[in-house]
Design brief:
Blueprint: H1 2-27, E1 32-36, H2 48-56, E2 61-68, E3 74-76, H3 97-101, H4 121-128, E4 133-138, H5 147-157, E5 168-172, H6 175-184, E6 190-194, H7 200-206, E7 212-215, H8 222-230, E8 236-240, H9 243-249, E9 256-259
Parallel strand pairs: 1-2, 1-9, 2-4, 4-5, 5-6, 6-7, 8-9
Antiparallel strand pairs: 2-3
Length: 266
Amino acid sequence: MKVMKNAFFTALATVISFFGIKKIANSTHKIKKIGHRGAAGYCPENTFPSYDRALEMGADYLEIDVQLSKDGKLVVIHDTLVDRTSDHKGKVSDYTFDELKKMDAGSWFSPKFRGARIPSFEEVLDAYADRVGLLVELKKPSLYPGIEDLIAKELKKRNLHLKGKDHIIVQSFETESIKKFHELLPEVPVGILINYPPDKIEIKEIAKYASYVNPKWTVVNKRVINLIHSNGMKAVSWTVRSKREAEKLKHYPLDGIVADYLDLIE
């Protein structure tokens, strides 16, 4: 009987130890919190109030969108039109930066943000690059020939390409643009955005130059994440806007989650 008791307690200790170790192992996997256009659920996107709020909420990264103004200035705005997020209408590329920065980019969201403006890429780098990671998305780069060179130049000017630990990540849906940027500045990790389930051949091709494949939350599953990780890349999913979406993603070993509401991914 004594032998049986000892065997029982030994087995019990083994089970407790196994699950305890498993729990610790899981707890060491930290999913990066990435503020979508800052804190887009609480503030007008891609503005300084939005970035500041994201930092207050504990963001590990700010996700920002970059395009070119009429006079070739790198500007941070998501849409190719200014209609939705400002008090003007028309293409971003039809306005000079001086004209863009005079627009009200806050009132559309709430009167209390009246006067918030469209920032330049340089301003965002100077204000935040030493305080938080940046996930930089090239929006429709095929519309802006040379945008990759300009972004690489601004990062090199500040030695941000040498900061390491994936402090700056550049991503886009357009593979040719990302390949070009990688050739210009190989020290900065790059990623491809996808909104469909990838296949093995495609992933292997992307892995030749990219460090990330970043899937939309709707296509995240075990197979997709395993496929990305098994090819030596990381996976950042986008964009969480509800508790349901956040709960789904928490079941997968993602490297980061992009969210409008960072408090959903605590």
